[in-house]
């Protein structure tokens, strides 16, 4: 219980520091809005996302449809809101996958070194040798395009980055004398990893996770843009943007709304990641 | 130095084997099997049997892998399911187009990013720095397809400009070729310049914080010498690594851009093959792109040993 | 009466050097190269030498924080090298290490309280109350206050952090402590505070120290006997005053004469060693000092001198003193 | 004796978000021609930033906030603090040179030793490439570098700390400066290498006719190399005199505490002398004497009023109420 309070205090403290900096504030508020949008999507969206107003196809933004309607007469605003939910869902779950595997692989490789390290890292080198979007594309095309497979593909693609980050931080923390000190006191390896190494790599890990979240959202949008990510009728900003290209001149709002939302979301996460790095890892601040 | 290079090349072998194995194994994950895709909905046992023999699917897995690799090493990537054409020559001719696009994009990104990154570092904490940093952040945040779509939208609505349709090779008609290529290159290059800008800035700042900069100032050096001779020479070394990764990223990034701008490059070939479930082509192209990526990184690492005298002693 | 707590025989710690195309082991850093010595109960044995001479590696090899390559380390009639990892881990409550750098040797994310309770939780099954009592006992010993227990290391100055490190090392009531340059990172005025603390604790808790330092003045003050190390070997060893007043080995002499004078009116006559310490990967044949020694003879390039008894517990490895 | 450098009421501030902290508080001292002037103090006392200020090498968030640094070269006398960027450049490396504590990081890792020595000549002379190379070679030989021809072509990472510090000295002296500032030049080195470097500096000082400011925390180094010494404590000079008086007629309780801590060390017959407590943190300076809390001779006045640095004997200055009173009476 005492620990949980400590952790909460820590988080509040970090948020306070984030909000001190005007740029950090923008990132934090941006991410906050996206999160609110996706949590309360059903409450916020004025219409059902599949409901087709056949009489009002390709209507430009007005009081009734604030972002207009698409070629089936569906409300763009509602689809954008649900799109936020999908993006965030894919982002969080796929980062969860890569962070978990990355943490385990990185800790094992960094702490135990030797053969285990070589095997894990050579494997990561292999995954790293593919341009990331291409690997995601390849995996999705093999597994078949769907929401779940998109998450798995993005999760796999991001694992090497996490593994490398974790491993590098473990190695640098391991060289600190307090680890030697923990060993010389007689701590078991598992306690050294959990009590001494993990808390000290949390900062770069969190920063990496935030930045990976923006990367995952970007990759999802790209896959969906190519028709290989989220499948219709589920709304995804990427596929909405792709669809819009057919009606470019007649209905430019179809392109602008998803494009602006994609850009703002990724931008917010990147700003948040940068500010978090400044707060958590002041050494890296330049 | 030589031993370092040889070691670096030898280290490639397991990575390349790993890559090919990885691709091969992922291909086995295809639900159902390859032929079902080819046959479509109509199940035709006779045709199926023919295909099984043609593609060697009756062989055990390890043998199929070894056969595939041996053929690849001979330059034989097999034939397409759809067109029955040889894959390798097609791949090479398309690679030329993608290569041209990549180089143009990379040049555009360096021309934008490196000077801006340096200026930003030197004018740290001023409004110039803030603006450059924001542009860089946009660069890493805007997906290239979003930028491409918005750019096309803007050009068509504002200027009624439409990029020419129908690809023309550079040596057929350089002017038309460049007209076709310039927009996608701008899209890729601008997006890519974000990360280069950030890296340049932080790298130059990092060097300026080093102790030896004080020594150089203490010798009586002008700011010009400090920055252009010492800070830049040292600061640009890590950027070389980034350029390697960048070219890899570009090879992947062209998939979408080529699709949007209808450029018949390698990316488009992969995408078409994926959509048509033309697996030999997918398999071949992915292997080829990964190989190119690995080679680019090798060249970068070797280049490193020439710019950084410390490297051979590691 | 057996007064020896720790006996080291033929200790070697080598680190492989990888190189070549296939990253094969091409040689070894002879960090600690065949050294032997004895440490008496409740005394301070000092290892002194310049950076890279292997003194720190020796200290860490004794506790197997770095695994030694070969040799025998007898601690309380038991060969420490032969213990299993788990047995060694348990042994550590009796053998402790104090570090040079008080800034990096304390986990920045743990409070003093956590740092101090950790060794107790690892080695004893104590109740919370017993742990608290033990912590109060130890902070009183090292001169910290109760109010400081909830603070983090970065809220302390270098000297205070070193007090925390010392408290962490002695809280499990060990009998043997390796102090690895414990005062080198501190300012002169703080250095003496910590040295006095170490001396007091030794008397109070009947501790045996191995004291590792490059500072000859500090070593002279705190130690009963000294071993001078050069390139992984002991070149001279004996009772401290004996070494400082009648050093025999040319390296010890040079080292002592290199210490800056404490009085501007008494300029010392210096023995200046030429050049740098040779690489420990390929230590020279013969005497490790032969390339830098003023009194080098032809034999020094060929045959490695062994430690020879000069009487009164004084041992020197030098051809000058051989019959 | 003629002075080469006169520092008058120098103030250095640390700029922080919560306002400026004064790190150097009205420091004044003079360095004579061909003199070895020592500045001694513990970490954080401000000795290194004073040296950087003399070279105008302070960078954000440090800045000089008052005072003068007058430098008297053969041609003219200038106040360094009022010089423009391109004017100070002509003095750096030519008239005043500096060597630093960490020789391993003080040289640019991607240029050869030769290029880095020649660079200093390039800034200040019109010699051709051949002459510059010859001078670099001569200089390396003067600072006692073996196989100098080969070393010229090598890179910093190939050389040891001791060698690199010799090379730093070569770079510093190649334009024959009038003043050499050495900021803890031997702290990162082993004792036997320290002995080599100190010997070399003493020898070069005579052959090059330079003045030296030696900055160190080690009273032993002061005793070996300096003629006149200033003791810094918490951003102020607390005592200044010639080296023999400092060691044998010590006035300030801090100086005598430091000396006792050093001299009682190694002598087991005496108890090791300690100064209790620690230096007050920057920005939280007490209103009275800055050493009051740790002093074993403190009086009532020490807590309330800060003492001035006054001359207590010919050429002997001290900042302590013990002596101020006797002056008053």
From TrEMBL, chain A:
Keyword Amino-acid biosynthesis present in the record's keywords: the answer is no
| ABC transmembrane type-1 domain sequence ranges | 84-273
- Keyword Transcription regulation tagged: no
Q: Which PROSITE patterns match?
A: ABC_TM1
Q: Which InterPro entries match?
A: BP-dependent_transpt_permease, MetI-like, MetI-like_sf, OppC_N
List the keywords (alphabetical): Cell membrane, Membrane, Transmembrane, Transmembrane helix, Transport
**Membrane topology label:** Multi-pass membrane protein
- Give the chief site where it resides: membrane
- Domain of life according to the entry: Bacteria
Indicate the transmembrane segments per the record: 26-45, 88-112, 124-143, 251-272
List locations, semicolon-separated: Cell membrane
Q: Which Pfam families match?
A: BPD_transp_1 (PF00528), OppC_N (PF12911)
Q: Which family does it belong to?
A: Belongs to the binding-protein-dependent transport system permease family.
Protein name per the record = Peptide/nickel transport system permease protein
State the organism of origin.
Answer: Sedimentibacter acidaminivorans
From TrEMBL, chain B:
Per UniProt, the keywords (alphabetical) are: Cell membrane, Membrane, Transmembrane, Transmembrane helix, Transport
**Subcellular location, record wording:** Cell membrane
**One Pfam family, short name please?**
BPD_transp_1_N
Q: How would you describe this protein's topology in the membrane?
A: Multi-pass membrane protein
Primary location: membrane
* Classification via PROSITE patterns: ABC_TM1 (PS50928)
Q: Which SUPFAM superfamilies match?
A: MetI-like
Similarity remark: Belongs to the binding-protein-dependent transport system permease family.
Q: Which residues cross the membrane?
A: 9-30, 97-122, 134-156, 176-196, 236-261, 281-307
* PANTHER family in alphabetical order: DIPEPTIDE TRANSPORT SYSTEM PERMEASE PROTEIN DPPB-RELATED
Q: Where is the ABC transmembrane type-1 domain?
A: 95-304
The name on file for this protein is Peptide/nickel transport system permease protein
TrEMBL record, chain C:
| A GO term for molecular function | ATP binding
Q: Please verify whether the record's keywords include Nucleotide-binding.
A: yes
Is the Transport keyword given for this protein? yes
Ordered alphabetically, the record's keywords are:
ATP-binding, Nucleotide-binding, Transport
The ABC transporter domain, residue ranges = 6-256
Which Pfam family, an example, fits this chain? ABC_tran
What SMART domains does the record point to?
A: AAA (SM00382)
Q: Which family does it belong to?
A: Belongs to the ABC transporter superfamily.
Q: Could you tell me what this protein is called?
A: Oligopeptide/dipeptide ABC transporter ATP-binding protein
UniProtKB/TrEMBL annotation, chain D:
Q: Which GO terms describe its molecular function?
A: ATP binding
Please name the PANTHER family in this protein's record: DIPEPTIDE TRANSPORT ATP-BINDING PROTEIN DPPD, OLIGOPEPTIDE TRANSPORT ATP-BINDING PROTEIN APPD
Q: Which SUPFAM superfamilies match?
A: P-loop containing nucleoside triphosphate hydrolases
- Tell me where in this chain the ABC transporter domain is found: 7-259
Q: What is its main location?
A: membrane
Q: Does the keyword Nucleotide-binding apply?
A: yes
Name of the protein this chain belongs to: Peptide/nickel transport system ATP-binding protein
| TM region positions | none
Membrane association type: Peripheral membrane protein
Q: Which family does it belong to?
A: Belongs to the ABC transporter superfamily.
**Where does this one sit in the cell?**
Cell membrane
Q: Which UniProt keywords apply?
A: ATP-binding, Cell membrane, Membrane, Nucleotide-binding, Transport
InterPro entries attached to this UniProt entry: AAA+_ATPase, ABC_Ni/Peptide_Import, ABC_transporter-like_ATP-bd, ABC_transporter-like_CS, Oligopep_ABC_C, P-loop_NTPase
């Amino acid at each position: 219980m005492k620990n949980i309070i400590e952790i909460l205090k820590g988080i509040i403290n970090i948020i306070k520091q984030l909000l001190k900096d005007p740029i950090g504030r923008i990132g934090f508020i941006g991410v906050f809005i996206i999160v609110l949008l996706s949590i309360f999507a059903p409450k916020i969206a004025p219409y059902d996302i599949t409901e087709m107003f056949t009489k009002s196809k390709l209507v430009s933004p007005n009081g009734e449809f604030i972002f207009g309607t698409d070629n089936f007469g569906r409300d763009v605003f509602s689809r954008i809101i649900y799109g936020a939910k999908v993006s965030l869902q894919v982002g969080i779950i796929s980062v969860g996958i890569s962070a978990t595997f990355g943490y385990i692989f990185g800790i094992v490789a960094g702490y135990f070194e030797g053969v285990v390290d070589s095997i894990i890292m050579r494997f990561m080198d292999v995954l790293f040798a593919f341009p990331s979007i291409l690997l995601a594309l390849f995996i999705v095309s093999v597994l078949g395009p769907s929401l779940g497979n998109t998450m798995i593909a993005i999760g796999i693609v991001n694992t090497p980055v996490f593994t490398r980050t974790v491993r590098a931080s473990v190695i640098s923390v391991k060289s600190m004398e307090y680890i030697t000190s923990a060993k010389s006191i007689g701590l078991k390896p598992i306690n050294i990893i959990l009590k001494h190494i993990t808390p000290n790599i949390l900062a770069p890990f969190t920063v990496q996770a935030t930045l990976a979240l923006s990367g995952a959202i970007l990759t999802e949008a790209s896959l969906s843009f190519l028709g290989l990510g989220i499948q219709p009728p589920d709304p995804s900003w990427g596929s909405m943007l792709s669809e819009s290209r057919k009606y470019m001149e007649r209905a430019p709002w179809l392109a602008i709304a998803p494009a602006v939302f994609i850009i703002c979301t990724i931008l917010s996460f990147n700003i948040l990641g940068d500010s978090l790095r400044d707060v958590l890892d002041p050494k890296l601040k330049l | 130095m030589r031993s370092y290079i040889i070691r670096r090349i030898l280290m490639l072998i397991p990575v390349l084997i790993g890559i090919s194995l990885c691709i091969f194994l992922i291909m086995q994950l295809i639900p159902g099997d390859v032929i079902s895709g080819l046959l479509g909905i109509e199940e035709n046992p006779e045709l199926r049997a023919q295909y099984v023999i043609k593609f060697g699917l009756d062989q055990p897995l390890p043998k199929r892998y070894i056969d595939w690799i041996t053929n690849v090493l001979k330059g034989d990537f097999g034939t397409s399911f759809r067109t029955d054409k040889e894959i390798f020559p097609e791949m090479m001719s398309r690679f030329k187009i993608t290569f041209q696009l990549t180089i143009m994009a990379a040049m555009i990104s360096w021309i934008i990013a490196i000077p801006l990154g340096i200026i930003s570092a030197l004018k740290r904490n001023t409004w110039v720095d803030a603006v450059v940093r924001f542009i860089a952040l946009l660069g890493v945040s805007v997906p290239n397809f979003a930028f491409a779509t918005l750019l096309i939208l803007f050009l068509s609505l504002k200027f009624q400009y439409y990029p020419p349709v129908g690809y023309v090779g550079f040596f057929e008609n350089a002017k038309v070729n460049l007209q076709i290529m310039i927009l996608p290159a701008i899209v890729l290059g601008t997006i890519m310049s974000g990360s280069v800008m950030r890296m340049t800035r932080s790298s130059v700042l990092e060097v300026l914080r080093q102790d030896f900069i004080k020594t150089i100032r203490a010798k009586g050096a002008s700011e010009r010498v400090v920055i252009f001779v010492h800070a830049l020479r040292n600061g640009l070394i890590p950027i070389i690594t980034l350029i390697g990764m960048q070219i890899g990223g570009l090879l992947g990034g062209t998939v979408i851009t080529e699709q949007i701008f209808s450029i018949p490059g390698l990316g488009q070939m992969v995408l078409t093959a994926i959509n048509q479930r033309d697996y030999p082509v997918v398999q071949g192209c992915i292997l080829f792109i990964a190989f190119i990526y690995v080679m680019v990184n090798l060249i970068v690492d070797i280049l490193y040993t020439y710019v950084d005298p410390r490297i051979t002693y590691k | 009466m057996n007064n020896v707590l720790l006996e080291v025989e033929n200790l070697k710690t080598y680190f492989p050097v990888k190189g070549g195309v296939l990253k094969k082991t091409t040689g070894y850093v002879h960090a600690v190269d065949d050294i032997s010595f004895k440490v008496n109960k409740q005394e301070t044995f000092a290892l002194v030498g310049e950076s890279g001479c292997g003194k720190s590696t020796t200290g860490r090899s004794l506790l197997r924080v770095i695994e030694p390559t070969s040799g025998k380390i007898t601690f309380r009639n038991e060969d420490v090298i032969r213990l299993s990892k788990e047995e060694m881990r348990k042994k550590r409550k009796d053998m402790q290490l104090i570090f040079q750098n008080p800034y990096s040797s304390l986990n920045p994310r743990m409070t003093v309280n956590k740092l101090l309770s950790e060794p107790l939780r690892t080695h004893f099954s104590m109740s919370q109350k017993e742990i608290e009592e033990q912590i109060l006992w130890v902070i009183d010993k090292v001169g910290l206050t109760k109010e400081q227990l909830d603070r983090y290391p970065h809220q302390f100055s270098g000297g205070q952090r070193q007090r925390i490190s010392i408290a962490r090392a002695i809280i499990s009531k060990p009998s043997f402590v390796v102090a690895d340059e414990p005062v080198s990172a501190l300012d002169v005025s703080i250095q003496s505070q910590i040295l006095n603390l170490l001396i007091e604790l030794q008397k109070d808790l009947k501790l045996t120290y191995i004291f590792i330092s490059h500072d000859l003045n500090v070593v002279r003050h705190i130690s009963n006997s000294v071993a001078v190390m050069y390139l992984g070997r002991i070149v001279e060893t004996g009772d401290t005053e004996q070494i400082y007043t009648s050093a025999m080995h040319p390296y010890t002499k040079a080292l002592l004469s290199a210490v800056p004078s404490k009085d501007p009116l008494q300029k010392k006559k210096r023995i200046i060693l030429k050049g740098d310490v040779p690489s420990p990967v390929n230590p020279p044949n013969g005497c490790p000092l032969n390339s830098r020694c003023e009194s080098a003879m032809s034999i020094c390039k060929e045959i490695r001198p062994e430690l020879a008894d000069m009487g009164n517990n004084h041992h020197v490895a030098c051809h000058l003193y051989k019959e | 004796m003629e002075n080469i450098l006169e520092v008058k009421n120098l103030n250095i501030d640390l700029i922080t978000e919560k306002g400026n902290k004064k790190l150097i508080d009205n420091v004044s001292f003079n360095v004579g021609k061909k003199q070895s002037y020592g500045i001694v103090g513990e970490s954080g006392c401000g000795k290194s930033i004073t040296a950087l200020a003399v070279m105008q090498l302070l960078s954000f968030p440090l800045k000089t906030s008052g005072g003068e640094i007058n430098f008297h070269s053969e041609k003219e006398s200038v106040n360094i603090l009022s010089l423009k960027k391109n004017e100070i450049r002509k003095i750096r490396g030519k008239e005043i040179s500096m060597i630093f504590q960490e020789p391993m990081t003080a040289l640019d890792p991607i240029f050869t030793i030769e290029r880095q020595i020649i660079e200093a000549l390039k800034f200040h002379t019109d010699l051709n490439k051949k002459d510059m190379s010859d001078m670099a070679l001569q200089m390396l030989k003067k600072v006692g570098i073996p196989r100098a021809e080969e070393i010229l072509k090598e890179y910093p990472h190939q050389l040891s700390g001791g060698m690199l510090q010799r090379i730093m000295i070569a770079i510093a002296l190649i334009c024959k400066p009038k003043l050499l500032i050495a900021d803890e030049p031997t702290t990162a080195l082993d004792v036997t290498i320290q002995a080599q470097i100190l010997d070399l500096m003493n020898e070069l000082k005579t052959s090059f006719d330079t003045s030296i400011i030696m900055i160190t925390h080690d009273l032993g180094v002061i005793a070996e190399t300096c003629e006149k010494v200033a003791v810094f404590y918490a951003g102020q000079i607390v005592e200044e005199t010639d080296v023999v008086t400092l060691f044998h007629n010590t006035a300030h309780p801090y100086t005598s505490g430091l000396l006792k801590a050093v001299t009682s060390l190694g002598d087991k017959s005496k108890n090791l002398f300690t100064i209790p407590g620690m230096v007050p943190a920057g920005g939280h300076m007490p209103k009275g004497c800055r050493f009051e809390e740790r002093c074993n001779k403190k009086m009532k006045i020490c807590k309330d009023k800060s003492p001035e640095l006054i001359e207590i004997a010919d050429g002997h200055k001290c900042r302590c109420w013990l002596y101020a009173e006797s002056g008053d009476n």
